[in-house]
Design goal:
Elements (H helix, E strand, L loop, with lengths): L4 E4 L8 H15 L6 H19 L5 H16 L6 H12 L9 H8 L4 E6 L3 H11 L7 E4 H4 L6 H9 L9 E5 L2 H11 L2 E5 L14 E3 L5 H4 L2
Parallel strand pairs: 1-2, 1-4, 2-3, 4-5, 5-6
Helix pairs in contact: 1-4, 2-3, 3-4
């Protein structure tokens, strides 16, 4: 096998985060009497992404990200601030119930598990990630989950990956591949750590960065060919 250790990002790589996010946000808005619209989702996603990118650079804490994204969204949408805390709390509770899975994830992970050691590498909230991995049925495929919240450093920082590598038995950098949907988190992290990278890009988004992933795929089934 070309690769024996596979590091999978969770959200929008094996778990369908977009679907979980939309459902959770819609329920939270409606529970407090706010109208949920496609524009509300668009604005929230813009602010959410920008805040996580600051987190990846070490400029914000995770707790700041979780509240700032709603502060910015409420300001942009001119929503009543007295409902902000309730929406933020409800959103996280509903997100724990987002068990949607990326197409072919279970099929691919089941086959990979026979010959490779699989791990989750995530910047998500540990409690939410644990709930979603269990509820989706995917947790059985992974030997361990490395979540930045418990490690103390986010992807793509080298300290995050050093921790992961120190906790993987018989770790071999040359036999390791990271697979993820984020150029700034997963691919940059893999570059920082000196391992091969696979950009999962099913939407065929343009690569406007200076990064060149080792591989780019649009279907998880393609991973099966890469590891051989």
């Amino acid at each position: 096998m070309k690769y024996e250790i596979l590091l999978f990002d969770a959200d929008n790589t094996v778990l369908d985060f977009d679907s979980s996010e939309e459902q959770a946000l819609a329920r939270a808005f409606r529970d407090v009497g706010l109208k949920f619209t496609p524009n509300a989702l668009k604005v929230y996603r813009k602010n959410n992404i920008s805040q996580w990118q600051l987190f990846e650079k070490g400029l914000l804490t995770k707790s700041q990200v979780l509240i700032n994204r709603f502060i910015l969204t409420f300001e942009d949408l001119h929503l009543p601030s007295d409902k902000l805390d309730s929406v933020a709390t409800l959103y996280e509770e509903y997100l724990k119930l987002g068990f949607f899975v990326v197409p072919y994830a279970e099929e691919v992970l089941g086959q990979l598990q026979r010959n490779c050691r699989l791990y989750i590498v995530s910047n998500g909230v540990a409690e939410i990630q644990n709930s979603r991995m269990k509820g989706s049925g995917l947790e059985k495929y992974f030997l361990s989950r490395f979540v930045s919240e418990t490690i103390g450093y986010p992807k793509p920082q080298i300290e995050y990956f050093n921790y992961c590598f120190e906790h993987i038995d018989s770790f071999d950098r040359t036999k390791t591949l990271i697979i993820g949907d984020s150029l700034t988190s997963d691919i940059q992290g893999g570059v920082n750590a000196g391992i091969d990278t696979c950009w999962f890009n099913p939407a065929h988004a343009p690569n406007n960065s200076t990064l060149t992933p080792t591989y780019e795929i649009d279907d998880l089934r393609q991973v099966l060919q890469l590891v051989r």
